[in-house]
Amino acid sequence: MKHAALSLFLLATSFQLHAAELTVQVNDQAGNPLSNAVVYLETDTKPSRNPLVEANIDQKNKQFWPFVSVVQVGTSVNFPNKDSVRHHVYSFSPAKVFELKLYSGVPAKPVIFDKPGTVILGCNIHDNMLAYIHIVDTPYFGKSDVNGIVKLTDLPSGQHTLKAWYYATVKENFITEQKVSIKNNETLSLKLETHN
Amino acid sequence: MQFKSLKSRISVIFLSLILVIQVLSSIAIKLSIDKNARRSVNQQLEVGERVFLNLLQNNGESLSVGARILAADFGFKAAIASNDHETILSALINHQSRINADIAIFYSPNQNSLVISENLSESEVSEKISEVIYTAKSDAQKNNFTIFKNQPYQLVAVPVKAPLTIGWVVMGFKINNSLANTLHKLSNLEVTFISQAGKSPWHSTASTMSVSATEQIVKYTTDQHAFNTSSNLELTIGDVAFGTRYVSIFKNINESLYVVLQRSIDEATAPFQVLLLNFLILSIVGMLIFIVSILYVSRIVAQPIVELANTARKLEEGDYTFNVDTSRKDELGKLSSAFSSMRTAIADREKSITKLAYWDEMTGLPNRASFMKELSNAINKSDVSHEPLSILVMNLDRFKQINNVLGHDFGNQLLHAVSIRISQVFRKDNDLVARVSGDEFAVLLPATDANIAVNIAQKLLQAFEKPIELDDNFVDITAGIGIASYPVHSNQIEQLLSFAEVAMQVSKAQKSGPVVFQPSFDVGSNVNLTLVSELKKSIHNNELSIFVQPKVDLKSRVVTSVEALIRWRHPTRGMIFPDQFIPFAEQTGLIRDITLWMIAEASKLSASWLEKGMSIPIAVNISARDLIDSDFPNKVAEILKSTGSNTSLISLEVTESSIMDDPHRAKQTLLQLSQMGIKLAIDDFGTGYSSLSYLKELPVSELKIDKSFVMHVEQNQNDRIIVNSTIELAHNMGLHVVAEGVENIEVWKSLQEMGCDYGQGYYMTKPIPACDFEAWYQQWTQVPLIYSTLSPNSIN
């Protein structure tokens, strides 16, 4: 098994103070666009926006969908089972330990993720099923698309901390952070050192 | 190699051959067994290695299964999540016992958690467990080993995923006796595990071998610097050689674990040894069968040859009586047939040769050689039985005469007839009749002493009293028979025969039937030598005297002459007849003195008679010795002169045989004597070998026919013919004829009829002493013509 070094580079910072937008380009060490990277901005002040009431993580074709989710603390997450077989979803992650014993359809209660951190989801029936939920304590977050681009909007101006998490960094569960000053619409490039 | 027989040669060659084959094949088999056994051991070791690896693989899989089951257990994961050590440990022990594993460990690097089912120090385990996990991460299939506290373990590490890896479950088996025994059961190999950890010495973990054997393996291992695990080696432990294979189980910088697989080569060869033993037993049995067969075969081949060799030896010894088996059809049979016909041919040839050598063809009797051989055999038998034996020698009288007059064919026929007559007398089984020379026969009489032999001889003579008839001729056979006996006379065959011949000569001379040999006959004997010396003195001692026998004119009865005969009055032996000493005198030459003495005495005697008015000449016998003495006539002349006699008063008689000794000189002497005026007569005519034609040349005036022809002249036709023809021939030659042996008047008459001139014999008188002659003469002349009436001629 190869170990790859992880490093994050902040290539440029430029944003507007109010209703500013931040576009972040996430690349891996080799410079290739990295998808499924979670990028969020923590502000000094309490976030003004409420979290989304609910989020869904489907089980389809014996896979979790989406593979990586990012939610704000306090968010209820539903785990609708869209397969014909039953699943037994669990997490032994300290951020949220829970299990949904063999069920089909949508469980009666959603799971509320009330602590920031990373939750690794597994299925006791299907060892191959794996999904990550990163819980952040800020309303400003996003997940990179296939081009490695994350767009954060409605950002307050000022000095903030930009953080990035990727499920397969060389240093496990490592969160890359850097200070950013939000003024205008800014574009940022982030480089993350990842597994493979 | 030298063989005494074909049989042993065949046997030895084939036996050696089979022995060599057996030995070579035994060696080859032995080598092959060893090679195969080692190859088989090597194969077993290689197979053992594979079995062992397979066993490890299986163990690994069963460990893996056990560990996976545990790692997948949701409760176990929950316990890990809650970091509940006690629960983790109980789960480890539970799953360890499910698969009979020896050790179970949970290790979580993230949580820095280590749970061990066995009593091992955490520090030692944590140090090595990461290595085990590292190995498992790189290749989950690879067998994983480590050594905890000198105890090697086979380990399997399985990650616990929730769903990412949150820790590792490690399960393991001890590399111990149980594993060794399992492998031993599977592979039938001896198994020893040896390990080395750090700087501690090599150490045996487990073994199916004895403690001492294990120690030796450890020692051997310690002595080695490097192990060749790709090939096998041979290790001798105790007295047993083991095929040995080192298999490396694991090895890192400071730890090594090997399994030593071993197989006893002896054990591997054991089944082959049984095979070899069986082969040897079969070989020995085969050899025995072969020995018996080859002996039998060689006997079949050699035995007939041995028999033929024995046959040939018999042939060599002259035994032709055996039979040769010619029933075989093979080459040996042909050889046997050849032998058989050779035997027959040799026997036939020898028979004819023997016949020639030992058989007289004319008479069909054995010859002299055969007689001598038989005599020799008979003497040997006689020695064993201590019985005497005797031989007769018979010599026909006048045979030469008969031969000359009647021809050789007649003579041969006569001999044949004589042989038949002799043979008729004797016992065919015991007595052997042989013809030993021309007219001489010999008879061998076993178990017969001289006295009985005389009787037999007389019987033989009786058998000849009847004349033999041949071609209408009747032949009267008279013969001299001499007898000599073994062992009294001699113990040498030649001498015995010669003594019998001497006796026969005496018999002929005496004409008195069979004569047994006396030592006195033998000139060479001591007695006779004494006699010879005495004879020399006898003349001077005046022991000799003269007897006379008158010759009478058969017509006129007038005494015309007398024959002087010598007698020896021996001072101790008495009267000795000339037969007994004249032969010696002739041999010694003394005869010449005797002859001269006789002539002197005779001339004196005749002179004395003349003075008395009896003009009767005296005839003196002279010997062969005298005839060859050229001075003899002079000596005679001197004697006559000294005695005052004259040649008319003396006549001399010579025998045919004495003339024939040296006819030329005899003739000279006789001529001289004749010229001196001395009358000469041939004595014993018919017994010698002279012929009338030869006598014609001699200056003789008278012929004396031997008495053997005369005695039976009136009965025997042949004698009559011989006498008659002799008279006629003599007369034709101008000779007077004197017949000796006139024993009766019939003979006289016959002779007179045949024209014989004079007669001499017992009828007139036997020889009388000279002094008695005058008396006889007076008596004879006083009775003149006493038988004249019987003779017509005598009347005139």
UniProtKB/TrEMBL annotation, chain A:
<keyword id="KW-0732">Signal</keyword>
<protein>
    <submittedName>
        <fullName>Methylamine utilization protein</fullName>
    </submittedName>
</protein>
<dbReference type="InterPro" id="IPR034242">
    <property type="entry name" value="MauL"/>
</dbReference>
<dbReference type="InterPro" id="IPR008972">
    <property type="entry name" value="Cupredoxin"/>
</dbReference>
<feature type="signal peptide">
    <location>
        <begin position="1"/>
        <end position="19"/>
    </location>
</feature>
TrEMBL record, chain B:
<keyword id="KW-0812">Transmembrane</keyword>
<dbReference type="GO" id="GO:0071111">
    <property type="term" value="F:cyclic-guanylate-specific phosphodiesterase activity"/>
</dbReference>
<dbReference type="GO" id="GO:0007165">
    <property type="term" value="P:signal transduction"/>
</dbReference>
<keyword id="KW-1133">Transmembrane helix</keyword>
<dbReference type="InterPro" id="IPR029150">
    <property type="entry name" value="dCache_3"/>
</dbReference>
<feature type="transmembrane region" description="Helical">
    <location>
        <begin position="275"/>
        <end position="297"/>
    </location>
</feature>
<dbReference type="InterPro" id="IPR000160">
    <property type="entry name" value="GGDEF_dom"/>
</dbReference>
<dbReference type="InterPro" id="IPR029787">
    <property type="entry name" value="Nucleotide_cyclase"/>
</dbReference>
<protein>
    <submittedName>
        <fullName>GGDEF domain-containing protein</fullName>
    </submittedName>
</protein>
<dbReference type="Pfam" id="PF00672">
    <property type="entry name" value="HAMP"/>
</dbReference>
<dbReference type="InterPro" id="IPR035919">
    <property type="entry name" value="EAL_sf"/>
</dbReference>
<dbReference type="InterPro" id="IPR043128">
    <property type="entry name" value="Rev_trsase/Diguanyl_cyclase"/>
</dbReference>
<dbReference type="InterPro" id="IPR050706">
    <property type="entry name" value="Cyclic-di-GMP_PDE-like"/>
</dbReference>
<dbReference type="Pfam" id="PF00990">
    <property type="entry name" value="GGDEF"/>
</dbReference>
<feature type="domain" description="EAL">
    <location>
        <begin position="528"/>
        <end position="781"/>
    </location>
</feature>
<dbReference type="InterPro" id="IPR003660">
    <property type="entry name" value="HAMP_dom"/>
</dbReference>
<dbReference type="Pfam" id="PF00563">
    <property type="entry name" value="EAL"/>
</dbReference>
<feature type="domain" description="HAMP">
    <location>
        <begin position="299"/>
        <end position="351"/>
    </location>
</feature>
<keyword id="KW-0472">Membrane</keyword>
<feature type="domain" description="GGDEF">
    <location>
        <begin position="387"/>
        <end position="519"/>
    </location>
</feature>
<dbReference type="InterPro" id="IPR001633">
    <property type="entry name" value="EAL_dom"/>
</dbReference>
<dbReference type="Pfam" id="PF14827">
    <property type="entry name" value="dCache_3"/>
</dbReference>
